[in-house]
Design goal:
The chain is mostly helical and about 160 residues long. The chain contains eight helices and three strands. The two termini are about 20 Å apart. The model has no long low-confidence stretch (mean pLDDT about 85).
């Protein structure tokens, strides 16, 4: 499986740094991340880290009327992508339609920022002390959407099993 911790470790590897910590608590932050580092991580995701989709998935995604919905709690990749502000305004929020273009715009707005700058730009409460995971999560989401040909999806907040 590919998750935020091993993608963060891969991004730190691109930067020539080592990952320490875990998915919760204190861990090495990759921030600030340059555009070149983000592009290198996307290439690594596409070429090495992400497995090919199962054969049954692309036809389902291409079916007329197919809707893609991302669900998770407040720190999920979908909630994060919906919370990144656009041009000084609040993020689109829960229920937002997420597209590869909107997720990439969130990536671009997050490049070059330290953890503190990331928290300030988004409102510290919205990131829940996960400023270091913003770009790894956004880059996973964008790469998967592109790989699967998903032109958009929604964010539904939920918690529990």
């Amino acid at each position: 499986p590919v998750g935020d911790s091993n993608v963060t470790a891969a991004l730190l590897g691109v930067q020539g740094r080592a990952f320490s910590g875990s998915s919760h608590g204190v861990r090495t932050s990759p921030n600030p991340v340059s555009a070149g580092e983000a592009a290198a991580l996307v290439a690594k995701l596409e070429q090495e880290l992400l497995p090919p989709p199962p054969a049954w998935l692309p036809p389902l995604l291409a079916a007329p009327g197919c809707r893609v919905v991302g669900f998770g709690e407040r720190t999920s990749i979908f909630a994060l992508a919906a919370s990144i502000p656009t041009a000084g305004e609040a993020g689109p929020g829960e229920g937002a339609r997420l597209t590869p273009a909107s997720v990439w715009a969130a990536v671009e707005r997050s490049l070059g920022k330290s953890d503190a700058e990331m928290a300030k730009a988004t409102g510290a409460d919205s990131l829940h002390d996960e400023e270091d995971l913003v770009l790894p999560k956004l880059l996973i989401l964008h790469t998967i959407m592109r790989r699967l040909g998903v032109d958009g999806g929604g964010d539904v907040r939920t918690l529990g099993d």
